[in-house]
Amino acid sequence: MRRRIKTLFMTVGTGVNPNSDEESYQRLAKGLYNSINKISPDYIVFFASEISMNTIDYVKELFEADDDIFIEGEDYEIAILNDIDSFNDCFETFERMVWKFNILSKDKHEIIMDYTSGTKTMSAAMACCGMFYSVDLISVTGDRKNGTVSLGTETIKYQNLYKVYDKFSLMRVRNYFNANRFYTASEILEKIVDESIHTEDLINLSNAYYAWDNMDFDVAYDFLTKVDLNLFELNEIKDDIKINLKALGAIVRSQHENLKNCYILASLINNSIRRAEEYKYDDAIARLYRAFELIAQIRLATYGLTSSDIDVNILLDKNVSPEFIDSLEKTRDEGKIKIGLIKDYELLAELDDDLGKYFAENRHSINNITIKRNNSILAHGLESLDKEDFDQFEELVENLARKLDKDMGKFLKETRFAKFDLKVKMNEI
Fold it and tell me: What letter does residue 338 receive in the DSSP assignment?
């Protein structure tokens, strides 16, 4: 088991000015010594410049005056700050020591950062470092005279940074949401404690898009209808959410089957685009292939035909060639004729449908694309696909989708996920 050690990080000031007299160093040392006694650390790291080394010497003398041993290397160590007015130099020095004690050490150090003494830059850098690594931050308060806390009035004040952490978490949520990592966004939101942040609505929002990304439209619609779109946190995307909600409503509630299917198709195409944006091209093309197939199935449905059970009587009524019907009959199994993607489009061509004609006219390029898809590791082969493969296939599928319905451009736009503007000031907090 790792030994738990209370370790105090202290910035050490230079006094009133770089040319402070001995009395000033001694007064500062007494303030540090009083703080140390109130905190009772097991180990101390002093962050000091060359100028402020005198102060540490006086702190050591105060220990000795109380018959206490204060040995460098056993009770304390000194981390030199080369440039006390450089934020980066100070921050990197603090960070290096956090890693040394909190991450790389075989013991478990409970680090407490006291940023009271030192230059404004030192204090700011330590406060930022402490917040970044979730380390306890303290400051010394009390009666002040000439800008310094009077001896004997010191009080240790722990800084509660939950509001800052929650604002930072909210910024991360917005980034994860835009990256389609909705589940992760929900997990972060669950840990926010600031009641002024509308976490329940934001969790519902993340859950809605998580469900939609997994094509679970009913669940997505249910979550999205629970979101209060008038919240400040959603101000810049509320109009886009309303558009998305309309699209989900059409999928879930519309009695018009063709409209519903077109919105589902548009969702699937946008789903594939999101996967491609994440460089998951094999996954993206697998989804495009399903969209390619769905386009044909939607159009066949307008003729009263279903790929999983072709009604030959309808084909006869539509004057489909006997030869084609015979080829279908040969595939009849357990009383049903089931056809796949290629036969779907060949049948549409037999029906003199525009989609079938487009398929026939572009048969060579379509064959090349589908062969690549079939050789993909997510289909039947071991090959990996790339952006060029996706772009070619996406162009083909979108062309077919637009031929399927003249309003497909609108459907695609309305099913494109809302995105936060990451340049707004909320992300600069």
Answer: -
DSSP alpha helix (H) spans, 72-119: 87-98
pLDDT at residue 376, rounded to an integer: 83
Distance CA 212, CA 267 (A): 8
The type of residue at 246 is K
Q: Could you say which of 130, 159, 188 is where a domain stops? A: 159
State the CATH number of the domain containing residue 122: 3.40.50.10770
The phi-psi region of residue 59 (left if phi > 0; otherwise alpha if psi is between -120 and 50; otherwise beta) is alpha
Question: Which candidate, 277, 299, 266, places its Cα nearest to that of 390?
Answer: 277
14 within a domain of the structure (yes/no): yes
Q: Which of 159, 187, 216 is the last residue of a domain?
A: 159
pLDDT in tens, 383-399: 888 899 999 999 999 99
Sheet strands side by side (includes 136-141): 76-80, 43-48, 4-11, 108-114, 136-141, 155-158
Q: 367: closest CA among 387, 396, 399, 347?
A: 396
How many domains would you assign to the chain?
A: 2
Closest CA to 416 of 207, 173, 212, 185: 212
**pLDDT < 70: residue spans in the chain:** 1-2, 14-21, 142-154, 424-429
What is the predicted pLDDT for the residue at 385? 86
Collapse the DSSP code of 44 into the 3-class scheme (helix H, G, I; strand E, B; otherwise coil) and give the result: strand
What integer pLDDT is reported at residue 153 of this predicted model? 59
Q: Of the candidates 342, 306, 335, 354, which has an alpha carbon nearest to the alpha carbon of residue 314?
A: 306
**At 33, is the secondary structure helix, strand, or coil?**
helix
Measured in whole angstroms, how far is the alpha carbon of residue 97 from the centre of its chain?
29
Residue 417: DSSP 8-state: P
Domain of residue 318: give its range: 254-414
pTM here is 0.78
